[in-house]
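Thread: Newbie trying to understand structure tokens

Hi all, I'm a second-year student working on a class project, and my supervisor (Dr. K.) asked me to get a predicted structure for one chain before our next meeting. I've only ever worked with sequences, so writing a 3D structure as a token string is new to me. If someone could post the tokens and maybe explain what I'm looking at, I'd be very grateful. Here's the chain:
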Amino acid sequence: MLLTKLHIRGLRSSAIWRASKAESLLQKGDYFNSTLSKVVANGLINTEFSKTPSLVDRIKKMTEYYTTERLPLQGHMTLIAYEMLEKPENVTDNSMYQAEIIACAMELLQSYFLIMDDIEDGATSRHGKTCWHLLPDVKTLALNDSSIFRSTIHEILKQNFSGPLYTQLLDTFNDAYSQVAIGQHLDTLFSTSKDFSLFTQANYDNIVKYKCTYYTMRLPLMLAMILTNRADEESFKLAENLCREVGDLFQMKNDFMDCFDSESESGKSGTDIQEGKCTWLAVKSLERGTPEQRTTFTTCYGSWDQEHVDTIKNLYKDLDLIALYEEEQRIRYKIFMQKVQALPSNATPTPELFLKLLQMAQAGQ
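---
Reply by user tm_fold:
Sure, no problem. This is what the structure looks like when written as tokens:
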């Protein structure tokens, strides 16, 4: 679903739409990846890691394996949000490089989550490659590797920022770890319990809130607001409210693609049915199904037997969940747009920024 022509015209008529320094940099092919490599290399200098060359090599390998193989969407969002929120006179080469460092840390954070998610879900592939934890020289070391990856993010922040700014950034990244960890706990709890009475809309919404919403758009916005000294409780609350709608849209699509595409948009092989995940499709199946269909669901869901997997997919089709998904996506998108249009022009974040980030997110899906 794309922005309406009216919204596009409105954006194009403003200076914000025109090519910015951040967008120009991002269009230069491997610019982001080369910056990321430099940020990681510099972040490891004079650390305990630097005393073990083999470990430095491993961190660089992890960075290349998990971070440079995908579109750095959240990193791009962070840069664009920074430039749109910052006063023009404050946007310098030095300030942009600081924003780039945060964008790189944002992408490393995403990689950390992906490594952990693949381990916990028993995934076999990501972005068309074998998952990190399945590589011959990794295996059980994957958990230690993920811990090292998280520490690398901390070192990068510590070496490049100081004072109250460093404290704010560190607190924000720590909040991200906590939020996603809660989401992962709920996700795993519901899928391993085999108690399908837990597959409710309320429980699903909680999974989305913690596991997806926080870093889909809200985290890039928060980081940009901190960098531009525009972070306050009212702005954070506004960002959280609107980003919740986007998080719902994203997770619904992720659930849908996991089932009806050979490899989901996340780049991970789809195994939600086999793992018994509490997904939007599963919740709606139990809500809409007849007693007989619910019995079919509870009998076959959470099984790796391909016949059972096919039965669940056919059940979703029989319940017309594809049409329901498309309708709910339209409704949620409309609600989001109405909330954005109702914002005052001087709101922080601005209506233009929300529209721009949503457009980027849609283009990256």
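A couple of things are worth pointing out once you decode it. The CA atoms of residues 123 and 247 lie 23 Å apart. The chain is about 70% helix and 0% strand. Feel free to ask follow-ups in this thread.
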